[in-house]
Design goal:
Blueprint lengths: L1 H56 L8 H6 L1 H8 L1 H18 L4 H5 L4 H10 L9 H11 L12 E2 L1 H4 L4 H14 L7 H6 L6 H32 L8 E2 L4 H22 L5 H13 L1 H14 L3 H15 L4 H5 L9 H24 L12 H26 L4 H22 L7
Parallel strand pairs: 1-2
Length: 430
């Protein structure tokens, strides 16, 4: 415990300026995000109310939008009243769902909605009912905040309060970089070798302090969003938090998981470039493998083989837990299962980082990757990925034959081999 406190103090002291600046930026972004969400929510409620009214009134001329476009959405709220808009929206949603046989439960389920979408529109006859498509989208939008299973005329704001803020994600990744990849290129890294505790303990201290810091800022962000939204001038008294678990879990687990992945990777990276590159590879998972296999095949006109690989990837994405393990960020907000799977995946990365750290060599510090064998694998991935990206860019404005494309691709591979071999031999810092 004594070592933990001492290591924590050193960690905070070294990164105090970066954490303070990022923290201030993060809180400012929370305030701006909450304000914009509150405004967008007003617009969303009014727009959806008008969409529902159009379907119910069978008004294909959209005359109902005249006031909206001329005077703005607030004129609609002041004219019809916030409570009436919410009440009418709920009644319209019930009426439309019943009239058009819309399965509300499937529409609310993120894992079923895509299949239901195809099923619904396959049965659609535009000549018989041109409003059927509008009915589907209007009900789908309404269900994001209206609960048809209660008699209350309230609006659920769970998705907005626990919405993923990109600034929080950036903060989590940058924090991991400051704790690992960026630290490795400074003289401070040499100083850490003199600590009277093991490298493993330092790794644990970084993880615990980082996770606690992210949780603290996440709570601040959620509170700012909640109090800003419920103080909305028009709809504030009608907002409630309900069925928040799925959104709250993903809100906390996503930045924590990304932090642990970036931190674990940073411990086997010799500099921040290696840290960032490995992080991108890690979060893309099998998508990157799929891309690197299918791109050259598609460029050479072998679409049938490329499709087989894509179908295999799609089959893997349908396997529970394995889909998130191999495609880390795949649909992680769709269900509690996928969110928890992502959390477990980040812990697996954290453990792998611990194991790989023990076999990494400090004399390679400053190079991209600390482990020489692992470095060769990452170098090959970098070569193929870069060649594929550049080949796709060339292909977009050229019209080579299959042989011409093959020659171009081989030339790009050779160029990237030369480039990445030099990059992986460059020592940054210290």
């Amino acid at each position: 415990m004594r070592d933990f406190k001492r290591a924590s103090k050193l960690l905070w002291y070294k990164n105090r300026l970066a954490i303070a600046l990022m923290g201030m930026f993060l809180i400012l972004s929370f305030a701006l995000y909450a304000s914009s969400v509150s405004t967008r929510l007003e617009q969303k409620i009014v727009t959806n109310y008008l969409d529902l009214k159009i379907v119910v009134d069978n008004n294909s001329d959209y005359d109902i939008y005249d006031d909206f476009h001329r005077k703005g959405y607030k004129s609609i709220i002041e004219k019809d009243g916030a409570e009436n808009i919410v009440k009418s929206s709920k009644e319209y949603t019930k009426e439309i769902a019943k009239k058009y046989n819309i399965d509300v439960e499937k529409l609310k389920d993120p894992e079923k909605v895509d299949d239901y979408y195809s099923e619904y529109f396959e049965k659609m006859n535009y000549e018989e009912d041109s409003q059927r498509g509008g009915a589907f989208y209007a009900v789908q939008n309404a269900l994001s905040y209206i609960d048809l299973n209660t008699n209350e005329y309230k609006l659920n704001i769970s998705e907005e309060v626990f919405g993923i803020n990109i600034a929080l994600i950036i903060f989590a990744v940058l924090l991991a970089l400051f704790f690992s990849g960026l630290e490795n290129i400074t003289p401070y890294f040499e100083f850490t070798k003199m600590f009277p505790w093991t490298k493993n303990k330092t790794y644990g201290v970084k993880a615990i302090n980082g996770v606690l810091l992210i949780i603290a800022f996440s709570i601040i962000g959620a509170l700012i969003s909640y109090f800003t939204i419920i103080n909305n001038k028009y709809f504030g008294s009608l907002f409630i938090l309900k069925d928040s678990l799925r959104y709250a879990l993903s809100y906390f687990i996503l930045p924590i998981g990304l932090f642990l992945i970036a931190l674990s990777i940073g411990e086997i990276s010799g500099n921040f470039l290696g840290n960032f590159g490995l992080f991108i590879i890690a979060i893309l998972g099998l998508w990157l493998v799929e891309y690197n296999l299918t791109t050259p095949l598609r460029l050479l006109g072998l679409d049938s083989i490329s499709k087989i690989i894509i179908d295999i990837g799609q089959s893997i994405r349908e396997i529970k837990f394995l889909n998130v393990l191999l495609y880390p960020t795949y649909g992680m907000r769709d269900s509690i299962d996928k969110t928890i799977s992502f959390g477990i995946t980040s812990i697996i990365f954290f453990i792998l980082g611990y194991l790989l750290m023990r076999i990494s060599k400090n004399e390679r510090n400053g190079l991209m990757i600390l482990n020489s064998t692992f470095s060769k694998i990452i170098e090959i991935i970098a070569i193929i990925t870069s060649a594929n990206i550049i080949a796709e860019i060339f292909e977009s404005f050229t019209n080579f034959s299959a042989i011409g494309t093959l020659i171009m691709y081989l030339v790009l591979i050779i160029i990237n081999i030369i480039f990445w071999r030099r990059m992986f031999k460059i020592r940054i810092g210290i």
